[in-house]
Amino acid sequence: MDMREIVIKFVCLLFLVLLGTTFHVYSQKKKAACEYAILVSQAVREDLAWNKLVETLKMEHGGEVFGYNQYPGELFDQLKQVQPRYVAVVEKGEKITPSFIRMMHAMSRNMDEDPYEDFVWGIITGSQAVDAMRMVTDAQVPKKVDIEWLSACALEKLSGYNGQDWSTGVYKDSWKKRMKTPSKHTIAEAVFLQQQYILEQLMRWDPKTLGLVLPDDMDDEVIKSLVKKELGKECTKEQIDLLKNRDVLAYYGDPKWNIRLKEFSSSFKMTCKKQRLLCTLTFESNGEVCDIDEYVFFFPKRLEVPQLLTELRGGEEILFDETFVIVRNVHLEAGEKYSIKFSVEGADSVGVKVMKLLQSKSIEF
Questions:
Q1: What is the dihedral of CA 190, 104, 162, 227, to 10 degrees?
Q2: Using CA atoms, how far apart are residues 255 and 156, in angstroms rounded to an integer?
Q3: Which strands sit side by side in the sheet containing 120-124, from one edge to the other?
Q4: Could you tell me the pTM of the whole model?
Q5: Crossing angle, helix 3-32 and helix 349-358, to 10 degrees?
Q6: Which residues, in sequence order, are bridge partners of residue 88?
Q7: Which run of H or E residues covers position 136?
Q8: pLDDT tens-digit readout, 199-231
Q9: Residue 182's closest CA among 271, 257, 252?
Q10: The Cα angle at residue 260 between residues 259 and 261, in degrees rounded to 5
């Protein structure tokens, strides 16, 4: 056996070892991952009527059930381990307080090191079990609604602010704007994206604002005093409103309910494609010059460690993590296409590299 054969056999053996390790890691990650988590209080588990909701959700989505005693925050470590993409909280109406909502926002925001929320969550609740069950049964039927329906729909029917209704202006109804895009987000995803938008605005002002423990009393003067004490700076009315809206918006219903807007005309279309270790977003003009001021998109699948490959042309602005992307200031000429590419990691990345080596036309020894 000559040296060349020995080296080739060694490389092949190395490939099989690496591939086996890769598949093992991949299987471990798949086992740990959780697409849909159902958080259930002890009071719900011990109530037969309420527990039927949990069983129905589990049958519908194949989700994993996590039980807590008093508050969902008890499950933080378990959720961080499995990294769910959707979280449904089944809880009796009297337990849904402003503190409860703030806790859910804090949990979603602290699943990893970035400052943004990482799972889409919804609360399934009601004064009685039969009322909460309607949320579950309604969500079993996909639904497309007219823009008029969305505009006429009271905010509190599907999402709203728990406690005092202090929200005004852009933050009260702007989740509807998140739905009015060619990507047609579900309402739960639109609420999720609205939350990311608020966090991004706070990050631009001061990243430390995300760590502020906000009081129950959300009076403007109280917020001003808190910011002055903790951050040593003054704040504007807009910044006060951002803080007030940081941890109060909630979606009521099954977070995987496929309820979207019907098709409507737009000056551009966007497509998202993922091929192995590459994810590409493409914006294409529908035959006319158009400017995309802001586009917020929820990735259909969570990306593993996305890295931007595209060089920006000048005025564009892109903010992203593994769950969403915000694209601003894109100008398209008539019929023009503009693509944004991300490299992503994957369990097969080592195997891909070794296969490329083996398939090389010439290997130097």
A1: -100
A2: 16
A3: 64-68, 36-41, 86-90, 120-124
A4: 0.82
A5: 160
A6: 38, 122
A7: helix 129-138
A8: 999 999 999 999 999 887 788 999 999 999 999
A9: 271
A10: 145
**How many other C-beta atoms can be found within 10 angstroms of the C-beta atom of residue 15?**
17
Measured from the Cβ of residue 66, the count of other Cβ atoms closer than 10 Å reads 19
Tokens 């807009």 correspond to 238
- The one-letter amino acid code at 186 reads T
Residue 59 has phi, psi (to 5 degrees) of: -65, -35
Q: State the average pLDDT over residues 223-242.
A: 92
Tokens for 13, please give them. Answer: 């053996």
CA 193, CA 181: separation in Å to the nearest integer? 12
Backbone angles phi, psi at 296, to 5 degrees: -115, 125
125: how many CB neighbours lie within 10 A of its CB? 23
Q: What would the two tokens of residue 53 be?
A: 């909701």
Rg of the chain over all Cα atoms, to the nearest angstrom: 24
Please, how many CA atoms are within 13 Å of residue 197, restricted to the half-sphere of its CB?
A: 24
8 Å CB contact between 253 and 191? no
The first and second tokens of residue 46, run together, are 């011990």
Question: How many angstroms separate the CA atoms of 244 and 227, rounded?
Answer: 12
Nearest to 294 by CA among 270, 268, 324, 327: 327
Amino acid at 55: E
Counting every residue, how long is the chain?
A: 365
**Residue located via tokens 């995309």:** 292
Six token digits for residue 236: 């504007």
| Residue with more model confidence, 249 or 37 | 37
**251 Rama sector, left if φ>0, alpha if ψ -120 to 50, beta otherwise:** beta
